[in-house]
Amino acid sequence: xxxYKDAGVDIDAGDRAVExxxxxxxxxxxxxxxxxxxxFAGLFDASALKNxxxxxxxxxxxxxxxxxxxxxxxGKYDTIxxxxxxxxxDDLVVCGAEPLFMTDYIAVGKVIPERIAEIVSGxxxxxxxAGTALIGGETxxxxxxxxDDEFDVAGAATGVxxxxxxxxxxxxxxxxxxxxxxxxxxxxxxxSLVRHIIKTAKLSLDAHVSEYGKTSGEVFxxxxxxxxxxxxALIRSMQGKLRGFSHITGGGIAENTARVIPEHLSAIYDRSxxxxxxxxxxxxxxxxxxxxxxxxxxxxxxxxxAIVSPDSADLALRSLAARGMKAWVAGVxxxxxxxxxxxxxxxxxRAR
Length: 352
Fold this sequence. Notes:
Helix content is about 35%, strand content about 25%. By secondary structure, it is an alpha+beta fold. It has 2 domains: about 140 residues, CATH 3.30.1330.10; about 180 residues, PurM-like C-terminal domain (Phosphoribosyl-aminoimidazole Synthetase, Chain A, domain 2). α3 packs parallel to α4 and α5 packs across α9. Belongs to the AIR synthase family.
């Protein structure tokens, strides 16, 4: 006789994981959520969208890449979920959309209920920080494809923006100002390079690094900053003088900013307005990473940029400061020369 459990899938463990995560999920809700978890689909009351003239639904999906391997190696699973939420919802706010709800997918070699609950607790905490409802998810056990302690996470979110309030390249003008919001560290991008340096330089995740003031593991598992509510608050306070945002993820500052700059303009960042985070500076030195490669792989200290009209830069800084966000003017939008890229970094980084 053969059972599903003999094949490596433990349904009882899955049910136990659901029970353990219920309390976390309950905190990541909104009034529009209908019903609880356990159904075949999550339900969200969209009647409020009738108040918009032309509601546009926005959707985004992502994962956290090989940062999951750092979590697995350390055995700490309660922060990786925040990374997932950040990667997904902060892509939505770039166009001005409010993230409404999110679903997740967790693939594991073996369901260990407590571990699943830790991962989901991070997702729920991230959704709470973003004002987004976690309305559903799936945990899949893949025996034979993944080792017992291996896992991956992915998620998708839906948001909405009124067509008249949509942000983007169509609003950007010459003379606009780039407002930079600081990253919390490496975020969830470029960890293949991080792990390569760990391996080749024989770094220990448990070792205390004086340059960091903490262990490498603690630094690498610092959750990705979630900017959604800060960006939405900025939209409300700017009264039409906000052009758009750029979420700085894989590809770095220049490449991601170029995605929201029209063909005839170029966004020029002044490197002297900020310093490279010490953890990136240290790892690039240990790993011998060229500056150009570092700037195309990691966020280099900026997690989100806002593009605003020049006469509203002070208002943007004050609005973000009121929320505890220490933003700064990092550059300007200029007319683009034929040979010039749509976004560049110029000058040298400020000395620490």
